[in-house]
Write a structure and sequence with these properties.
By secondary structure, the chain is mostly helical. The chain has one domain. The chain is built from 9 helices and no strands. α2 packs antiparallel against α3. The longest helix is centred in the middle third of the chain and has 27 residues. The protein starts with a helix and ends with a helix.
Amino acid sequence: MVFLSALLVASVAWWVATGLVLALARAGTRYFKTVMALATGVAVIGVFGLIATEDRTTETSAYIAFFSAMALWAWHETTFLIGLVTGPRRIAYMEAPHEKSRFRAAFLTVRDHEIALFVTLLALVWFMHEADNTTGLLAFCLLWVMRVSTKLNIYLGARHAISDMLPDRLSYLKSYFRTDRTSGWFYVSLSGSAILLAWLVLSAAQADTAHGAVKWTLLASFAGLALIEHLFLVLPVRDSALWGWAMDKTKKRQSNKNRANRTALHTKPESETSRATARA
């Protein structure tokens, strides 16, 4: 019963939290201050939640730490999707000024966001590595690792990487996605995700306390969901269908058409010749 409860909680939390972040991002254009106040308030509660449960090893403390880590992650996602913390380059790849490499150009679009996430991760490791309850720390680490893996797949090549959930204000990011192929990294990351999932499931099965069972089941559930999200990158399915209630109505009407177009037309990275021509 403990395992089933944790699995359901993690799955519902993933679905609801993603939808709420999308809804906040959609509202950010009109209600920027309100959205940031809400997101920041939730993040502050998350910090206190992690502090309050770091030395407690009960079922409840595992859930609180897990949700607290999600609150911190949601703050970062909200600031990114509303365009507050992204990177110094906020233009499409083909637009001037041109960078020397596609990787540098792509990284500059998300640099500040990635630095903020990494600094938060380091802070959590620094303050919580000796805590009795590491559920929140491990949850944030898992989210970060899976996000980096996803972004590498999007950059290196995944045929259906362009999501309908990307706000219009960040539409320039699509020019950095490679959708003309599925790179070898996808198979490496998928295999790694499967191995990680198996290890977490085994850890949950071997847990000798209720706290451990909840902790490892929550993490295993998120690892499984992350693996599914990786599959969304290469399968012709609409990931946005799960969060239609949180998306802009115009995007919902256009998503089917966009998905069909992406199946037939794949974006290729700019060639050396075209870059040279553009610079000239």
